[in-house]
Every structure is written in C-alpha cells, then in structure tokens.
Write a structure and sequence with these properties.
about 25% helix; binds adenosine-5'-diphosphate; 6-stranded antiparallel beta sheet; D-amino Acid Aminotransferase, Chain A, domain 1; binds magnesium ion; globular; about 220 residues
C-alpha cells in the first residue's frame, strides 16, 4: 500500500519495510527475527525465543500488538493489561485467531526491554528530509503506561528526553554511546529505505534497547507523529 502526498511517500506494510532493512548486513543483527504469522511459525518461534510479539502488518499506535509466551507447561498471551493462559498450543491459537480477525500479522522475537520503575522504555527518532538534506527532529524515550508492554504515547506512554530515559533504565555510562548508535542506525537505514522507496521524506524509527544494552529496530514509520 503506497501513496504520495505533500508529506512524501507513505509505506504502510511493516513487512516490506523490514525486508528492505534486512538487505543491509549491518542492520540485520538489530532487527528482531520476524516472519509472517502462521500457527507452525508461532510454535517454532515460541520454542526458539520463549516470548514473541505478534502485530498487524498494517497498524499503528500499538493497536493489536500482542505478546505471546511459552511458560513451563503452557502458553499465555497479553493484550493491553489482560493476560490469558492456556494449557495447550491449540487453545492459544484458537483464541489468537479470533482476536486477529481477517488482518495479516507478523511474528517477531520478543525483546526484553530495559525498564524505568518496571515500565518498558523504547525510543523514537524522527528524521526529516528538508531542502534535500536529512536532519534529526527528535530523539525521545517513551515509557510504557504502567501495566502495559507497549510504549506508544497514544496508549498512555510517557515521553522523556532520550538521555534521561537511557540514564534511568541502563545507567549514565550508556547515554552517549547508545544515542550515537541510534543515530548511526538511522543514517544507514534511511539510505537503504530511500534507495528502495524513492520519495520518502520523513521517517520515525522505533528503537528498543534490551536489558543488555543492545539496540533493536522495532519498526520504521513513514508518517511519524
Ligand atoms: N519485538 C518486540 N519486542 C518487545 N516489544 C515490542 C516488539 N515489537 C513492538 N514492541 C512494543 O510494541 C510497541 C508497538 O509496536 P510497533 O512495532 O512500533 O507497532 P505500532 O505501529 O503499533 O507502533 C513498540 O513501541 C514496543 O513498545
Ligand atoms: Mg511504533
């Protein structure tokens, strides 16, 4: 799904954008393993990763983003503040399919984000092309509303300066290096995306930083807020 307007080219499919980023070897280690949703894929990714996130291929605002985990002898999913457990895989899949309806979904390895007071935090970098040059417009942290795992501001997340968020979640020694790394990933990703999708002029990158300090690219928006 693509259209053009004064905000530049819009790309709705998370799958297409993720595939484009995967074409660059230095981005690959920063993209959580991702596949299209199917029950067999869900089963094998749960075996491999323990926790996965499923999300609509076309979606925004954290809507429809569901965390799924394998625990000891059963399974559970979390959607908004509600967690439901199942003793077998088929029960889990039936419930998920009902929630998902007709939409297409992705499955992504679940990243254990660093937290502030137990609330996951991730980061938004806004990058805009102005007079033919890309420039930063914002680098902020978003702390999930208490009880949620999604950080989206539209779900009640709190915005902080990126440096404050990194300091509060990982410690002061991480601030400079993680900000620099997010900027570097933004430059490389933008080059790749612009080559694949000419006409884009604004990008909003969602970066997670896990408890070990590793940066992950969750998604790139072409109509960022
Ligand atoms: N793979 C993941 N592991 C952990 N949390 C995730 C993952 N993917 C998304 N999230 C959480 O869900 C939020 C929304 O997901 P995102 O991919 O940005 O979709 P949306 O278009 O709905 O914003 C992210 O900001 C993050 O907080
Ligand atoms: Mg997002």
């Amino acid at each position: 799904m693509t259209n053009h307007n004064h905000d530049g080219r819009q790309l709705a499919s998370k799958w297409e954008k993720t595939e484009a980023l995967l074409s660059h070897p230095s981005l690959v280690p920063h993209i959580p393993p991702t596949s299209r949703f199917s029950a067999p894929q869900l089963r094998s990714m749960l075996e491999r990763h323990g926790t996965v996130v499923i999300k609509p291929v076309v979606g925004s605002g954290g809507k429809g983003v569901i965390k799924v985990s394998k625990s000891g002898n059963g399974f559970s999913y979390t959607h908004y503040e509600r967690t439901v457990s199942y003793s077998n895989f088929d029960g889990l899949v039936m419930a998920l399919l009902q929630k998902m309806g007709q939409k297409s979904y992705l499955i992504q390895k679940g990243i254990s984000l660093a937290t502030v007071n137990g609330r996951p935090i991730d980061y938004r970098v806004k990058y805009v092309k102005s007079f033919n040059r890309w420039e930063y417009r914002a680098l902020v942290g978003r702390i999930a509303r208490s009880g949620l795992f999604v950080t989206n501001l539209s779900q009640g997340g709190d915005m902080v300066l990126a440096g404050q968020g990194i300091k509060a979640s990982l410690g002061p020694s991480y601030v400079k290096v993680k900000k620099r790394e997010m900027r570097e990933l933004t430059v490389i990703s933008t080059r790749v995306l612009e080559q694949r999708f000419p006409g884009i002029v604004q990008l909003g990158f969602d970066y997670g930083i896990d408890r070990q300090g590793k940066i992950w690219i969750f998604e790139v928006n072409t109509r960022p807020h």
